[in-house]
Amino acid sequence: MGDRSESATCRRLPVLRTTLTASVAVGALLAPATAAQARPDAPDIPPLTDRHGRVLTLRGWNVEDKVNRGDKALSAVTERHFADMRAQGFNLARLLVFWDDLEPRPGQYSTGYLRKIDRVLDWAERNDVKVLIDAHQDVFGPAFGHRGIPAWATRTDGLPFTPHPDDWFAEYFEPAVQRAFTHLYEDPDLRRAQADAWRVLAGHVARHPAVIGYDLMNEPMGELSEGEDLPTAARRIERDQITPMYNRLADAVRSADRDAWIFVEPTPIVGEGVPTGLGRVDDPKVVYAPHFYNTAMEAGADYDPGAGWIEAYERAVVEYPRRYQVPVVVGEWGPLNNSLPNMGLFYRDAMASLGRYTSGWAGYVWCYGGGYCAVDGTGAFRTHKELTAEPYAASVAGTVASASYDPSDGVYRLAYRASRHGPRTTELSLPPGTWHITADAATVLRTEPGRARVLAAPGRDVTVTVRRPPIEDRTCPQRRLACRP
Predict the structure, then answer these.
(1) How far apart are CA 110 and CA 61, in angstroms?
(2) Cis bond leading into 24, ω under 30°?
(3) Does residue 134 contact residue 94 with C-beta atoms inside 8 Å?
(4) Are the CB atoms for 164 and 125 separated by under 8 Å?
(5) DSSP 144
(6) 225, 271, 397, 399: least CB-packed within 10 angstroms?
(7) Band of the pLDDT at 23, cuts 50, 70, 90?
(8) Helix/strand/coil for 59
(9) How far is the CA of 238 from the CAs of 21, 158, 185, 348, in angstroms?
(10) Distances (CA, A) of 14 to 268, 301, 343
């Protein structure tokens, strides 16, 4: 979440969120697709679909360059990012873009920055990776030493700001930062400027085949009122300020792009099991896109399976999609220190939980080094992160009855009823290695490495099994990007 800036080697300081920990502890006491139905494991949450009604699963990683800007913006992102992700079976990149780069001066939009975005989207398309365009902000933006909302759109009323170099998240609670959010939400000229920036961005990329949607604002925050605890404030800000903002920005996007999905985030407080106060966003293609971080683990602690955090998060996060009947895609997740003793269990528990109620996720972050990076400098998965690479059905031409992967025996099972109309081909995405695939009442087509397609007659009940062979039969270790099935 927030300012996870990555250097060339992705080194970071530990994130300390003592303010959030204390506040949340108080609060804790307190378009329909023709072929799709609700998710089988969460039957009242609808799935993500494409324009043909196929049920989609998106799995991938954030891709970013927070360090370079201006003429060097996005220079840390290369085609290798997309080729390597796709080689591991991932099909989604959440691409961070910054309003301060798009509109460095009021009303002057950078054509150079838009061309850089085009280049990244072309790389993604060439490697068959879908892109979620994320309008990213960290601690509001450059006025406070971060990225996001331009300095010219930052109004503080002269309130103080003190940097917290060892605990960047605490900077959200500085008076100047909080007041800047209030002005962004309430000042008519800033509302128009934000909407205009989205019109320009969406209008430029709307026809690009790699774009699947727009994340309207990364981890929005706001200004606490006197005497409010953080969860109460978050629900009020989400209800009274962020929901109207999302409706304004969705309208702006729709003036340029009628087809892509609109992704909306709650405040980061949802990560501690606090239900969101977001209201309805009046658009037919909305995706709820919370983040999945734990305060203690962000500060460097090991996963505590007995604390019930994942269970509490799941209970809280499903309330919004159930109420408003929208799909869920988690936009960021993954701990800083993934090599601690219980982290293997964390990844297994997290993957199982995300599989129950989401249509996908984007881990943080695909880069080559340490810190949050998914892989090291040689391209090998860092400890335990290989557990995120599983077989899954990227698109299902039918109604899904069940889908699950058992990492203990390496078996993925999919059951669905094939559509009576429209596309007939279901696509599986596979990590590197040799996988044995069988299908009842359908034909398996193996056309390229890392993919398989299942062709079924209309209306048939299909069962697909993907099985990892015994260890002695595998062609290479799954951790290595160089391996190919």
Answers:
(1) 26
(2) no
(3) yes
(4) no
(5) G
(6) 225
(7) very low
(8) strand
(9) 19, 25, 11, 31
(10) 17, 10, 17
| CB-CB neighbours of 476 under 10 Å | 13
Place 34 in a pLDDT band, splitting at 50, 70 and 90. Answer: very low
CA pair distance 223, 241, nearest whole angstrom = 10
3 state DSSP class of 417: strand
Residue pLDDT, tens place only, 250-273: 999 999 999 999 999 999 999 989
Residue bearing tokens 């949450």? 45
In the three-class reduction of DSSP (H, G, I as helix; E, B as strand; rest coil), residue 201 is classed as helix
Q: Which residues contact 326 (CB under 8 A, 6 or more apart)?
A: 46, 286, 287, 288, 320
Q: What is the DSSP letter of 132?
A: E
How far apart are alpha carbons 171 and 17 in whole angstroms?
10
Give the residue from 420, 459, 419, 466 showing the smallest Cα distance to 439.
466
Total residue length of the chain: 485
Q: Judge whether 310 and 353 are in contact, CB under 8 Å.
A: yes
Q: Which residues pair with 437 in a beta bridge?
A: 466
Closest C-alpha to 125, from 88, 71, 157, 86: 86
- Residue 384, SS3 per DSSP: coil
> How many CA atoms within 13 Å lie on the side-chain side of 288?
29
What SS3 state is found at 235? helix
As a whole number of angstroms, the distance between CA 444 and CA 441 comes to 10
**pLDDT at residue 484 above 60?**
no
Q: CA-CA distance, 277 to 33, in Å (whole number)?
A: 27
User: Buried (b) or exposed (e) across 394-412, using 16+ Cβ within 10 A?
Assistant: bbbbbbbeebebeeeebeb
How many C-beta neighbours within 10 Å does residue 133 have? Answer: 28
